[in-house]
Amino acid sequence: MATIADVKRFKSTVNTASPEYQANYKEWQLLLNTLRDRLKEATSQGQMRHLETHIKRGQLLARDRIELLLDEDSPFLEICPLAGWGQKDMTLGGSIVAGIGLVCGVETMVIASVPTLSGGSSNEVSVVRGERISQILMENRLPAIQLLQTGGANLSQQFRVFHRGGIATIHSTILSPFSIGSRTYGNLSSPHRNSSKAGIPTCSVVFGSSTAGGAYSPGMSDYVIMVKNKAQVFLGGPPLVQMATGEISDAESLGGADMHSRKSGVSDQLALDEFDAIRKAREWMSHLNWKKHGPVPPRHLTPSIEEPIYNRDELLGIVSANIRLPFDATEVVIRIVDGSRFMPFKPLYGANLVCGWAHVHGWFYFILFYLVFFDVFIEYTSVIYYYRETFDAGIPVGILANNNVLFTQEANKATQFIQLCNLKNTPLLFFHNITGFMVGKRYEEEGIVKAGARFINAVANSQVPAITIIMGASYGAGNYAMSGRAYNPRFLFSWPNSKCSVMGPDQLTGVMDLITRQAAERTGQVIDENAAAARNEKFRLVVEKESDVYYTTSRCLDDGVIDPRDTRDVVGMCLSVVYNREVKGGNLYGISRILGSVYKAGVMSNCYGRHGQLNGWRSFASGRQVGHCIQSDSIDP
Ligand code: COA
């Protein structure tokens, strides 16, 4: 039987002694120091006076609660840890810590409010980050555990929070899509009710005061644990109640854990203290009997993973910190995939886009070891056959990585490759280093618009999960074609050197300058060269700032900035996470090769329905009969 072991190891040609390699490596140290400092800043949980008060009350800090909840040695993949970075009036991370870790062996989305940052209240960044977290756990079918202690909406940002959060704040945003139905709160819109059908389990552990919007979070969870004498859950605290109705009550009798466990029924378990509450949350998880829908190694085997044969540290010498300097994407790929085994697709055609298949964090090597063992001692039994089957259930991935600008051939190749991966139910992994599609008369005549549109359509219609890594430039339609944020990859991470915008700051400024000059010429205006230069420079700086990776990550346009050397582990974990749902490609079209353009209606106005023939398609958008070309401009009226 053919296996991944038959795929040959790719041979690296990198010279680690070369001056380029050494210079790159040195430059990366600065970038990584900055990343390290910023991530460290993101782990800060507030001012010392708030930390002291919190600890004096006998409470655990948010990150300690997470650590206790997760399995020993569990990884914790934080999602958008630098959300809010550099933004005025925002807490770094949005007063929450959120990520994916293992609870009783189950991949779980854990979301903890940070009560020592603005009382754990949710600001605008919390909402944006919460929306992304909510999307990730829904798409990947991840059970969620919330560790709550929150002052609800940040009142100084009520306008920016209230309207985005719908019924409540961040925590409710996370839970509302799927937990409604188990309880009877709120007047939620149909998307929420539809999501609830996904049946993703949620648990809230309330450690302290959870007011107003924060109260709806436990209210809408499947299961609620409250800490005795600490948790307080109410729509309005004692002062607000007194103001509204004149009723005088203390916080404990109004919304204490004991009251909710005995009278209101909002709480399902009364925990003696924080440790007991976390233990109860783990107990809840262990009773879920949660199963992934994708392949998992048999429980009695501890999977072992074949590392790349090349050191991942070498990524820092191969990739330039300066995105203008090219590098060979294959050299990156073979430092990320298992055993540096990579099976390229069409290596001689459209070489500016590397495509091919590999495994990341597959577990076959262990099983291969067992095969040898059984072959020797038991010879050919049914046990061997069983292991052979498991062998094939590793996690394959189809990789697309940019070497340089995209031409028609690259677009054709990518379209076919994406179709093949859909037919074989193989997730996609994109590595961006792309300034866009080639422009110019010759390329327009060649039909690069048509080829590019096919590529983008294939990405838009692809139904297998995609994971995207931005490892350099990510500009314009190149970003879209390579499954940038707008094309909804399941996960998207950036390297600290990366830049992302409609085009590079210099090009964008140059284009704007030309347009402005042409407009001035048409109206007979005289151009003030000094003013133009100042305007251009100002504009260039704005674009440069907006394309910077910390600017985009701050706005949750990626799921985090990662050290290139961690890429393999991050991708491996994401691949494992996507397999919580069944991975199934869409059989939307046959293999289109170079001329075929057969697509299901998609997100773009120039997507047409599949009828299987090249002639006589009917545009879904216009209902007009169209010919071979999928560009709407070329429809013959
Ligand atoms: N919006 C904005 N800031 C808030 C806030 C909120 N909802 N809740 C707390 N904060 C701020 C406080 O002003 C304080 O700011 P400071 O750093 O300048 O001192 C800081 O967070 C800590 O609050 P504090 O009251 O000292 O902490 P605490 O642990 O004793 O109490 C709460 C925390 C959440 C119980 C309490 O602050 C509270 O009741 N907040 C109001 C909750 C509310 O009514 N929310 C309505 C949401 S719709």
Task: Provide key terms for this protein.
2-enoyl-CoA Hydratase, Chain A, domain 1, binds coenzyme A, seven-stranded mixed beta sheet, eight-stranded mixed beta sheet, globular, 17 strands, disordered C terminus, 637 residues, 14% strand
Outline the fold blueprint.
Layout: H1 19-42, H2 48-56, H3 62-69, E1 76-78, E2 96-103, E3 106-113, H4 124-139, E4 144-150, H5 158-165, H6 170-179, H7 190-196, E5 202-211, H8 213-220, E6 223-227, E7 232-234, H9 238-245, H10 251-255, H11 257-264, E8 269-271, H12 274-286, H13 315-318, H14 329-333, E9 343-345, E10 353-359, H15 364-377, H16 382-391, E11 396-402, H17 408-423, E12 428-434, H18 441-446, H19 448-461, E13 466-475, H20 476-481, E14 491-494, E15 499-501, H21 505-522, H22 529-547, H23 549-554, H24 567-578, E16 617-618, E17 625-626
Parallel strand pairs: 3-4, 4-5, 5-6, 5-7, 6-8, 11-12, 12-13, 13-14, 13-15
Antiparallel strand pairs: 1-2, 2-3, 9-10, 10-11, 16-17
Helix pairs in contact: 4-6, 6-7, 6-8, 15-16, 17-19, 21-22
The structure holds coenzyme A.
Coenzyme A is lined by residues 50, 118-119, 121, 151-156, 209, 211-213, 237.
